[in-house]
Amino acid sequence: MPLSASRIEEIHRSFSGQGLMGTFAACLDELDEGRAVISMPLSDRVTQQHGFFHGGTVGALADTACGYAALSMVPPGKAGLTAEYKINLISPADGDRLIAVGQVIKPGRMLMVCQGEVFVEKEGQRKKCAIALMTLFVMEGLSSI
pLDDT tens across 16-37, in order? Predict the structure, then answer.
């Protein structure tokens, strides 16, 4: 079932309220039920000593893409918090832009399992640089924004 315009707006408001994503100059590029795509440009604030995107940056983007994919399936009046995530950095994140795709694998009432893939883009070419698996805890009493 497609997301309503009001739910999409609510999720975009939530995303814009994230300080870390603002620091990263990240954008929520795509949002569908159970799927989110977030991208960010390279800047010297998010690199490691060789000039690649820092692994912590890659992990944070994967976690956030999975979190918003899950949030798109969380009922109103509830929110989600990351319970855990594991990431495999499979290639150096050497590029101009980072793109994270989060996808819900198993929705649940209390726990949701998501998979994230992170790509680095350089001169228009994309290469997968990380794969993540994330579990989100669904909580009552927190708003999604």
Answer: 999 999 999 999 999 999 999 9
Looking at the domain assignment, is residue 145 inside a domain? Answer: no
Distance CA 77, CA 133 (A): 25
> How crowded is residue 132: how many other Cβ atoms within 10 Å of its Cβ?
23
**Nearest Cα residue to 132 out of 26, 46, 36, 41:** 36
* Structural domain boundaries, residue 111: 5-140
pLDDT tens digits, residue range 76-135? 788 889 999 999 999 999 999 999 999 999 999 999 999 999 999 999 999 999 999 999
Enter the DSSP assignment of 109.
Answer: S
Among candidate residues 122, 126, 131, 133, the one with its CA nearest the CA of residue 52: 122
**Dist CA 97 CA 89 (whole Å):** 16
